[in-house]
Specification:
Pfam families: Ferric_reduct, NAD_binding_1. The chain has about 450 residues and is an alpha/beta fold. The protein is about 50% helix and about 15% strand. It contains 16 helices and eleven strands.
Protein backbone atom coordinates (compact mmCIF):
# COMPACT_ATOMS: atom_id res chain seq x y z
CA UNK A 1 0.00 0.00 0.00
CA UNK A 2 3.02 2.28 0.27
CA UNK A 3 4.37 4.33 -2.63
CA UNK A 4 7.01 7.00 -2.70
CA UNK A 5 5.87 10.62 -2.90
CA UNK A 6 7.71 13.89 -3.14
CA UNK A 7 7.95 15.20 0.40
CA UNK A 8 6.97 18.82 0.97
CA UNK A 9 9.49 20.98 2.75
CA UNK A 10 8.61 21.55 6.41
CA UNK A 11 7.37 25.04 7.27
CA UNK A 12 9.92 27.48 8.64
CA UNK A 13 7.64 30.32 9.81
CA UNK A 14 6.67 30.88 13.43
CA UNK A 15 4.09 28.28 14.37
CA UNK A 16 0.51 29.67 14.31
CA UNK A 17 -0.30 28.45 17.83
CA UNK A 18 2.86 30.07 19.25
CA UNK A 19 2.03 33.33 17.49
CA UNK A 20 -1.54 33.43 18.79
CA UNK A 21 -0.61 32.39 22.33
CA UNK A 22 2.19 34.97 22.47
CA UNK A 23 -0.19 37.62 21.19
CA UNK A 24 -2.68 36.87 23.97
CA UNK A 25 0.06 37.00 26.61
CA UNK A 26 1.34 40.33 25.30
CA UNK A 27 -2.20 41.73 25.19
CA UNK A 28 -2.89 40.71 28.79
CA UNK A 29 0.47 41.98 30.11
CA UNK A 30 0.16 45.30 28.28
CA UNK A 31 -3.32 45.90 29.68
CA UNK A 32 -2.26 44.85 33.17
CA UNK A 33 0.56 47.41 33.01
CA UNK A 34 -1.85 50.09 31.76
CA UNK A 35 -4.30 49.38 34.57
CA UNK A 36 -1.47 49.56 37.11
CA UNK A 37 -0.31 52.90 35.69
CA UNK A 38 -3.78 54.46 35.85
CA UNK A 39 -4.21 53.11 39.38
CA UNK A 40 -0.93 54.69 40.51
CA UNK A 41 -1.86 57.99 38.82
CA UNK A 42 -5.05 58.18 40.90
CA UNK A 43 -3.07 58.11 44.16
CA UNK A 44 -3.17 55.72 47.09
CA UNK A 45 -5.48 55.58 50.09
CA UNK A 46 -3.86 55.70 53.51
CA UNK A 47 -5.21 52.25 54.37
CA UNK A 48 -3.19 49.39 52.89
CA UNK A 49 -6.15 47.00 52.83
CA UNK A 50 -8.20 49.47 50.79
CA UNK A 51 -5.32 49.95 48.33
CA UNK A 52 -4.87 46.22 47.83
CA UNK A 53 -8.63 45.69 47.62
CA UNK A 54 -9.05 48.31 44.89
CA UNK A 55 -6.15 46.88 42.90
CA UNK A 56 -7.59 43.35 43.21
CA UNK A 57 -10.94 44.64 41.92
CA UNK A 58 -9.32 46.26 38.89
CA UNK A 59 -7.34 43.17 37.94
CA UNK A 60 -10.34 40.92 38.57
CA UNK A 61 -12.37 43.02 36.12
CA UNK A 62 -9.54 42.99 33.57
CA UNK A 63 -9.39 39.19 33.78
CA UNK A 64 -13.15 39.10 33.28
CA UNK A 65 -12.80 41.07 30.03
CA UNK A 66 -9.99 38.72 28.96
CA UNK A 67 -12.30 35.78 29.71
CA UNK A 68 -14.84 37.11 27.25
CA UNK A 69 -12.19 37.33 24.54
CA UNK A 70 -11.16 33.70 25.12
CA UNK A 71 -14.68 32.40 24.43
CA UNK A 72 -15.68 34.90 21.74
CA UNK A 73 -14.96 32.18 19.13
CA UNK A 74 -13.11 34.58 16.88
CA UNK A 75 -11.98 32.59 13.81
CA UNK A 76 -8.38 33.85 13.87
CA UNK A 77 -7.84 32.68 17.45
CA UNK A 78 -9.88 29.50 17.15
CA UNK A 79 -8.00 28.21 14.10
CA UNK A 80 -4.66 28.74 15.81
CA UNK A 81 -5.37 27.64 19.37
CA UNK A 82 -8.57 25.60 19.28
CA UNK A 83 -11.83 25.89 21.18
CA UNK A 84 -10.82 23.23 23.70
CA UNK A 85 -7.66 25.06 24.82
CA UNK A 86 -9.33 28.48 24.76
CA UNK A 87 -12.17 27.14 26.89
CA UNK A 88 -9.71 25.55 29.32
CA UNK A 89 -7.90 28.89 29.66
CA UNK A 90 -11.27 30.62 30.10
CA UNK A 91 -12.13 28.27 32.94
CA UNK A 92 -8.82 28.78 34.74
CA UNK A 93 -9.04 32.53 34.26
CA UNK A 94 -12.57 32.40 35.69
CA UNK A 95 -11.32 31.05 38.98
CA UNK A 96 -8.73 33.83 38.95
CA UNK A 97 -11.59 36.33 38.53
CA UNK A 98 -13.48 34.73 41.42
CA UNK A 99 -10.55 34.90 43.85
CA UNK A 100 -9.59 38.44 42.77
CA UNK A 101 -13.11 39.76 43.33
CA UNK A 102 -13.49 37.93 46.63
CA UNK A 103 -10.18 39.49 47.70
CA UNK A 104 -11.48 42.88 46.58
CA UNK A 105 -14.68 42.55 48.63
CA UNK A 106 -12.95 41.26 51.78
CA UNK A 107 -10.06 43.76 51.74
CA UNK A 108 -12.32 46.74 51.01
CA UNK A 109 -14.74 45.77 53.76
CA UNK A 110 -12.04 45.18 56.38
CA UNK A 111 -10.13 48.25 55.22
CA UNK A 112 -13.07 50.59 55.75
CA UNK A 113 -13.95 48.80 59.00
CA UNK A 114 -10.42 49.47 60.24
CA UNK A 115 -10.89 53.18 59.56
CA UNK A 116 -14.27 53.31 61.32
CA UNK A 117 -15.81 52.03 64.52
CA UNK A 118 -17.93 49.40 62.74
CA UNK A 119 -17.37 45.67 62.59
CA UNK A 120 -16.89 44.17 59.09
CA UNK A 121 -20.50 42.96 58.72
CA UNK A 122 -22.05 46.29 59.67
CA UNK A 123 -19.43 48.08 57.57
CA UNK A 124 -20.49 46.09 54.52
CA UNK A 125 -24.16 46.88 55.18
CA UNK A 126 -23.28 50.55 55.61
CA UNK A 127 -21.35 50.62 52.32
CA UNK A 128 -24.28 48.97 50.50
CA UNK A 129 -26.71 51.56 51.91
CA UNK A 130 -24.61 54.69 51.47
CA UNK A 131 -22.23 54.15 48.53
CA UNK A 132 -23.47 54.12 44.95
CA UNK A 133 -22.96 50.84 43.15
CA UNK A 134 -21.87 48.71 46.14
CA UNK A 135 -25.16 46.82 46.26
CA UNK A 136 -24.86 46.15 42.51
CA UNK A 137 -21.30 44.92 43.05
CA UNK A 138 -22.47 42.57 45.83
CA UNK A 139 -25.11 41.08 43.53
CA UNK A 140 -22.48 40.72 40.77
CA UNK A 141 -20.13 38.92 43.14
CA UNK A 142 -22.91 36.57 44.23
CA UNK A 143 -23.62 35.68 40.59
CA UNK A 144 -19.93 35.06 39.91
CA UNK A 145 -19.71 32.78 42.95
CA UNK A 146 -22.75 30.86 41.65
CA UNK A 147 -21.24 30.48 38.18
CA UNK A 148 -17.92 29.42 39.72
CA UNK A 149 -19.66 26.78 41.83
CA UNK A 150 -21.48 25.18 38.86
CA UNK A 151 -18.26 25.32 36.81
CA UNK A 152 -16.34 23.20 39.31
CA UNK A 153 -15.59 19.74 37.91
CA UNK A 154 -17.79 17.84 40.37
CA UNK A 155 -20.79 20.04 39.52
CA UNK A 156 -20.13 20.27 35.79
CA UNK A 157 -20.21 16.48 35.45
CA UNK A 158 -23.65 16.34 37.08
CA UNK A 159 -25.33 19.10 35.09
CA UNK A 160 -26.75 18.89 31.59
CA UNK A 161 -24.97 21.24 29.22
CA UNK A 162 -28.15 23.28 28.66
CA UNK A 163 -28.63 23.79 32.43
CA UNK A 164 -25.00 24.76 32.95
CA UNK A 165 -25.10 27.10 29.95
CA UNK A 166 -28.28 28.85 31.18
CA UNK A 167 -26.72 29.51 34.60
CA UNK A 168 -23.49 30.63 32.91
CA UNK A 169 -25.39 33.35 31.04
CA UNK A 170 -25.81 35.20 34.35
CA UNK A 171 -22.14 36.09 33.97
CA UNK A 172 -23.21 38.80 31.52
CA UNK A 173 -25.54 40.28 34.17
CA UNK A 174 -22.61 40.26 36.60
CA UNK A 175 -20.42 41.99 34.00
CA UNK A 176 -22.90 44.87 33.61
CA UNK A 177 -23.38 45.30 37.36
CA UNK A 178 -19.64 45.18 38.13
CA UNK A 179 -18.74 47.54 35.30
CA UNK A 180 -21.27 50.20 36.31
CA UNK A 181 -20.05 49.93 39.91
CA UNK A 182 -16.43 50.48 38.88
CA UNK A 183 -16.91 53.47 36.61
CA UNK A 184 -19.26 55.20 39.05
CA UNK A 185 -17.22 54.95 42.28
CA UNK A 186 -13.76 53.62 41.39
CA UNK A 187 -11.23 56.31 42.21
CA UNK A 188 -9.09 55.25 39.24
CA UNK A 189 -11.92 56.25 36.88
CA UNK A 190 -13.58 59.12 38.76
CA UNK A 191 -10.26 60.97 38.86
CA UNK A 192 -9.24 60.53 35.21
CA UNK A 193 -11.19 60.90 31.98
CA UNK A 194 -8.38 59.09 30.15
CA UNK A 195 -8.77 56.10 32.47
CA UNK A 196 -12.54 56.07 31.92
CA UNK A 197 -12.08 56.20 28.16
CA UNK A 198 -9.54 53.38 28.30
CA UNK A 199 -11.85 51.21 30.44
CA UNK A 200 -14.84 51.79 28.17
CA UNK A 201 -12.64 50.83 25.20
CA UNK A 202 -11.43 47.61 26.82
CA UNK A 203 -14.93 46.47 27.69
CA UNK A 204 -16.39 47.68 24.41
CA UNK A 205 -13.88 45.60 22.45
CA UNK A 206 -14.39 42.53 24.66
CA UNK A 207 -18.18 42.63 24.35
CA UNK A 208 -17.96 43.40 20.63
CA UNK A 209 -15.77 40.32 20.15
CA UNK A 210 -18.41 38.16 21.85
CA UNK A 211 -21.21 39.71 19.79
CA UNK A 212 -19.27 39.23 16.56
CA UNK A 213 -17.99 35.69 17.15
CA UNK A 214 -20.98 34.12 18.89
CA UNK A 215 -23.94 35.91 17.35
CA UNK A 216 -23.30 38.07 14.28
CA UNK A 217 -20.94 35.74 12.40
CA UNK A 218 -23.01 32.52 12.90
CA UNK A 219 -26.22 34.33 11.92
CA UNK A 220 -24.62 35.84 8.82
CA UNK A 221 -23.10 32.55 7.70
CA UNK A 222 -26.34 30.62 8.12
CA UNK A 223 -28.36 33.28 6.30
CA UNK A 224 -25.82 33.19 3.51
CA UNK A 225 -25.42 29.43 3.11
CA UNK A 226 -28.96 28.20 4.00
CA UNK A 227 -27.92 24.71 5.03
CA UNK A 228 -30.20 21.70 4.61
CA UNK A 229 -29.93 17.95 5.06
CA UNK A 230 -29.45 16.31 1.65
CA UNK A 231 -28.99 12.67 2.71
CA UNK A 232 -28.89 10.43 5.80
CA UNK A 233 -26.78 7.29 5.34
CA UNK A 234 -26.48 4.56 8.02
CA UNK A 235 -22.87 3.38 8.30
CA UNK A 236 -23.58 0.63 10.88
CA UNK A 237 -26.18 -0.28 13.48
CA UNK A 238 -25.30 2.72 15.65
CA UNK A 239 -23.40 5.09 13.32
CA UNK A 240 -24.91 7.41 10.74
CA UNK A 241 -23.57 9.95 8.26
CA UNK A 242 -25.51 13.14 7.52
CA UNK A 243 -24.85 15.05 4.31
CA UNK A 244 -25.56 18.80 4.33
CA UNK A 245 -25.75 21.09 1.32
CA UNK A 246 -26.30 24.81 0.90
CA UNK A 247 -25.49 27.88 -1.14
CA UNK A 248 -21.93 29.06 -1.84
CA UNK A 249 -20.31 26.39 0.33
CA UNK A 250 -17.06 27.02 -1.52
CA UNK A 251 -16.96 30.32 0.41
CA UNK A 252 -17.38 28.67 3.81
CA UNK A 253 -13.87 28.63 5.37
CA UNK A 254 -14.04 25.05 6.63
CA UNK A 255 -11.03 22.72 6.69
CA UNK A 256 -10.57 19.00 7.17
CA UNK A 257 -10.28 18.22 10.89
CA UNK A 258 -12.63 20.99 12.02
CA UNK A 259 -16.06 20.64 13.59
CA UNK A 260 -19.34 22.53 13.78
CA UNK A 261 -21.95 22.91 16.50
CA UNK A 262 -24.93 21.49 14.63
CA UNK A 263 -28.57 22.32 15.30
CA UNK A 264 -31.07 20.38 13.22
CA UNK A 265 -34.22 22.48 13.19
CA UNK A 266 -36.79 19.81 13.93
CA UNK A 267 -39.69 20.35 16.31
CA UNK A 268 -38.11 18.34 19.13
CA UNK A 269 -34.39 19.09 18.64
CA UNK A 270 -34.04 22.68 17.37
CA UNK A 271 -32.79 23.86 20.76
CA UNK A 272 -29.98 21.29 21.09
CA UNK A 273 -26.48 21.85 19.65
CA UNK A 274 -24.06 18.96 19.20
CA UNK A 275 -20.38 19.12 18.22
CA UNK A 276 -19.63 16.80 15.31
CA UNK A 277 -16.48 16.81 13.18
CA UNK A 278 -16.49 16.83 9.43
CA UNK A 279 -15.88 13.26 8.31
CA UNK A 280 -14.85 14.27 4.80
CA UNK A 281 -12.77 17.16 3.57
CA UNK A 282 -15.03 20.04 2.43
CA UNK A 283 -15.40 20.05 -1.36
CA UNK A 284 -17.35 23.30 -1.77
CA UNK A 285 -20.63 21.47 -2.43
CA UNK A 286 -21.36 19.22 0.56
CA UNK A 287 -20.48 18.92 4.23
CA UNK A 288 -20.59 15.51 5.90
CA UNK A 289 -20.70 14.59 9.57
CA UNK A 290 -20.64 11.06 10.95
CA UNK A 291 -21.82 10.31 14.48
CA UNK A 292 -22.30 7.37 16.80
CA UNK A 293 -25.49 7.08 18.85
CA UNK A 294 -24.23 8.08 22.29
CA UNK A 295 -27.24 10.10 23.51
CA UNK A 296 -30.66 11.32 22.48
CA UNK A 297 -29.24 14.02 20.20
CA UNK A 298 -26.91 11.80 18.19
CA UNK A 299 -29.42 8.91 18.11
CA UNK A 300 -32.03 11.24 16.58
CA UNK A 301 -29.80 11.90 13.55
CA UNK A 302 -30.94 8.62 11.97
CA UNK A 303 -34.53 9.96 11.91
CA UNK A 304 -33.67 13.24 10.15
CA UNK A 305 -35.57 13.87 6.95
CA UNK A 306 -34.06 15.16 3.73
CA UNK A 307 -34.70 18.89 3.50
CA UNK A 308 -34.44 19.56 7.26
CA UNK A 309 -33.05 23.03 7.87
CA UNK A 310 -29.69 23.16 9.67
CA UNK A 311 -28.15 25.91 11.80
CA UNK A 312 -24.41 25.30 12.11
CA UNK A 313 -21.99 27.34 14.21
CA UNK A 314 -18.44 27.14 12.99
CA UNK A 315 -16.20 25.89 11.59
CA UNK A 316 -14.22 25.55 14.80
CA UNK A 317 -11.00 23.88 15.81
CA UNK A 318 -7.25 23.91 15.32
CA UNK A 319 -7.01 20.20 14.43
CA UNK A 320 -5.92 20.99 10.86
CA UNK A 321 -2.94 20.92 8.54
CA UNK A 322 -2.25 24.55 9.46
CA UNK A 323 -0.13 23.23 12.34
CA UNK A 324 2.11 20.87 10.37
CA UNK A 325 5.75 20.93 11.48
CA UNK A 326 7.11 17.87 9.63
CA UNK A 327 6.74 16.61 6.04
CA UNK A 328 5.27 13.21 7.05
CA UNK A 329 2.50 12.32 9.47
CA UNK A 330 0.96 9.63 11.65
CA UNK A 331 -2.83 9.68 12.06
CA UNK A 332 -4.09 7.77 15.11
CA UNK A 333 -7.83 7.24 15.54
CA UNK A 334 -9.90 5.45 18.14
CA UNK A 335 -13.52 4.46 17.54
CA UNK A 336 -15.69 7.18 16.04
CA UNK A 337 -12.74 9.55 16.52
CA UNK A 338 -11.84 8.37 13.04
CA UNK A 339 -14.14 11.02 11.52
CA UNK A 340 -11.72 14.00 11.56
CA UNK A 341 -8.81 11.61 10.89
CA UNK A 342 -10.49 10.37 7.73
CA UNK A 343 -11.03 13.97 6.59
CA UNK A 344 -7.41 14.87 7.38
CA UNK A 345 -6.07 11.91 5.41
CA UNK A 346 -7.93 13.27 2.39
CA UNK A 347 -6.28 16.68 2.86
CA UNK A 348 -2.73 15.73 3.86
CA UNK A 349 0.35 15.95 1.67
CA UNK A 350 3.42 13.80 2.30
CA UNK A 351 3.59 10.20 3.44
CA UNK A 352 1.06 9.20 6.11
CA UNK A 353 0.66 6.22 8.40
CA UNK A 354 -2.88 5.67 9.69
CA UNK A 355 -3.45 3.62 12.87
CA UNK A 356 -7.09 2.82 13.60
CA UNK A 357 -7.76 1.38 17.08
CA UNK A 358 -11.07 -0.43 17.66
CA UNK A 359 -12.31 -3.26 19.86
CA UNK A 360 -13.56 -5.41 16.96
CA UNK A 361 -13.60 -5.26 13.18
CA UNK A 362 -17.31 -4.36 13.30
CA UNK A 363 -16.46 -1.15 15.15
CA UNK A 364 -14.23 0.12 12.32
CA UNK A 365 -16.48 2.87 10.97
CA UNK A 366 -15.59 4.25 7.50
CA UNK A 367 -12.88 1.60 7.19
CA UNK A 368 -13.60 0.94 3.50
CA UNK A 369 -13.20 4.65 2.79
CA UNK A 370 -9.92 4.70 4.68
CA UNK A 371 -8.66 1.77 2.60
CA UNK A 372 -9.54 3.53 -0.64
CA UNK A 373 -7.95 6.80 0.48
CA UNK A 374 -4.81 5.06 1.73
CA UNK A 375 -4.43 3.30 -1.60
CA UNK A 376 -4.97 6.52 -3.57
CA UNK A 377 -2.55 8.57 -1.46
CA UNK A 378 0.15 5.95 -0.93
CA UNK A 379 -0.45 5.79 2.82
CA UNK A 380 -0.02 2.88 5.21
CA UNK A 381 -3.13 1.76 7.08
CA UNK A 382 -3.07 -0.40 10.23
CA UNK A 383 -6.25 -1.67 11.87
CA UNK A 384 -5.51 -2.53 15.51
CA UNK A 385 -8.22 -4.60 17.20
CA UNK A 386 -8.63 -6.25 20.56
CA UNK A 387 -9.61 -5.46 24.15
CA UNK A 388 -8.77 -2.00 25.45
CA UNK A 389 -6.68 -3.64 28.20
CA UNK A 390 -3.88 -4.46 27.68
CA UNK A 391 -3.10 -1.33 25.67
CA UNK A 392 -2.40 -2.21 22.04
CA UNK A 393 -0.79 1.19 21.37
CA UNK A 394 1.98 1.00 23.96
CA UNK A 395 5.38 2.52 23.06
CA UNK A 396 6.82 -0.73 21.72
CA UNK A 397 3.84 -1.33 19.44
CA UNK A 398 3.83 2.23 18.10
CA UNK A 399 7.57 2.03 17.40
CA UNK A 400 7.02 -1.24 15.55
CA UNK A 401 4.26 0.20 13.38
CA UNK A 402 6.06 3.50 12.75
CA UNK A 403 9.84 3.22 13.30
CA UNK A 404 10.42 6.92 12.51
CA UNK A 405 7.49 8.16 14.59
CA UNK A 406 9.61 10.83 16.32
CA UNK A 407 10.25 12.44 12.92
CA UNK A 408 6.58 12.82 12.01
CA UNK A 409 3.62 14.98 12.95
CA UNK A 410 1.09 13.05 15.05
CA UNK A 411 -2.65 13.73 14.68
CA UNK A 412 -4.63 11.98 17.42
CA UNK A 413 -8.39 11.68 18.01
CA UNK A 414 -10.36 9.16 20.04
CA UNK A 415 -11.95 8.44 23.43
CA UNK A 416 -10.31 10.34 26.33
CA UNK A 417 -8.77 7.23 27.94
CA UNK A 418 -7.28 6.06 24.64
CA UNK A 419 -5.91 9.53 23.88
CA UNK A 420 -4.31 9.77 27.32
CA UNK A 421 -2.65 6.37 26.86
CA UNK A 422 -1.31 7.30 23.41
CA UNK A 423 0.00 10.64 24.66
CA UNK A 424 1.93 8.79 27.38
CA UNK A 425 3.35 6.40 24.79
CA UNK A 426 4.42 9.29 22.55
CA UNK A 427 6.14 10.96 25.51
CA UNK A 428 7.98 7.72 26.28
CA UNK A 429 9.10 7.54 22.64
CA UNK A 430 10.49 11.07 22.84
CA UNK A 431 8.15 12.64 20.29
CA UNK A 432 8.42 16.45 20.70
CA UNK A 433 5.20 18.07 21.94
CA UNK A 434 5.16 20.54 19.05
CA UNK A 435 4.67 17.58 16.67
CA UNK A 436 1.62 16.21 18.54
CA UNK A 437 -1.76 17.59 17.50
CA UNK A 438 -5.02 16.70 19.21
CA UNK A 439 -8.25 18.36 20.17
CA UNK A 440 -11.03 17.45 22.56
CA UNK A 441 -14.27 17.97 20.70
CA UNK A 442 -16.98 19.16 23.10
CA UNK A 443 -19.41 21.95 23.69
CA UNK A 444 -17.72 24.87 25.31
CA UNK A 445 -18.85 27.88 27.28
Amino acid sequence: MTTLQTRPAPPTAIRPRVMARSGLHILLIANAATVGWFFAQAGFASNTLIVLGRLAGLYGALLMAFQLLLVARLPWLDRRIGMDRLTSWHRRTGFGVLWALLTHAVFITFGYAEASSLDPVNQLVNLAETTEGVLRAAVALGLIVLVGAVSARWARRRLAYETWHFIHLYTYVAVVLAFTHQVSVGTTFTSSQAARTYWYTVWGLALSAVFLGRLALPLWRNLRHRLRVSAVVPESDDVVSVYVTGRDLDRLPAQAGQFFLWRFLTRDRWWQANPFSLSAAPDGRTLRLTAKAAGDGSAALRRLKVGTRVFAEGPYGAFTTLHRTRPDAVLIAGGVGVTPIRALLEDLDGHAVVIYRVATDRDAVLYDELCDLALAKGAELHLVTGPIVPDRLAPRELARLVPDIDERDIFLCGPPAMMAAVLRSLADLGVPKRQIHFERFSLAG
